[in-house]
C-alpha cells in the first residue's frame, strides 16, 4: 500500500485521532489498527505513538 505523504492527509488523520480521543471509544485500538492499515505512512505511526503514550500516561494517573 502506498504511503499517503500529503500534509493535508496527515492533518485529516490527526483530526480523526483527536476525535477518537475526545469520544473515548471502547474500540480505539481497533480503530488505530484500521487507521494504520488504511494510511500506513510515517506520520500515522508517529501520531499513533504519541496517542498511545498519551493514553498510557492518562491511565497511570
UniProtKB/TrEMBL annotation:
Tell me where on the tree of life, at the top rank, the source sits. Answer: Eukaryota
Is Membrane found in the keyword set?
Answer: yes
> Which positions, given as ranges, span the membrane?
29-53
Q: Report keywords, A-Z.
A: Membrane, Transmembrane, Transmembrane helix
Q: What is this protein called?
A: Putative ovule protein
Amino acid at each position: 500500500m502506498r504511503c499517503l505523504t500529503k500534509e493535508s492527509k496527515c492533518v485529516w488523520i490527526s483530526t480523526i485521532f483527536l476525535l477518537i480521543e475526545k469520544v473515548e471509544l471502547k474500540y480505539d485500538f481497533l480503530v488505530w489498527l484500521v487507521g494504520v492499515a488504511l494510511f500506513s505512512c510515517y506520520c500515522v505511526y508517529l501520531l499513533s505513538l504519541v496517542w498511545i503514550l498519551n493514553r498510557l500516561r492518562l491511565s497511570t494517573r
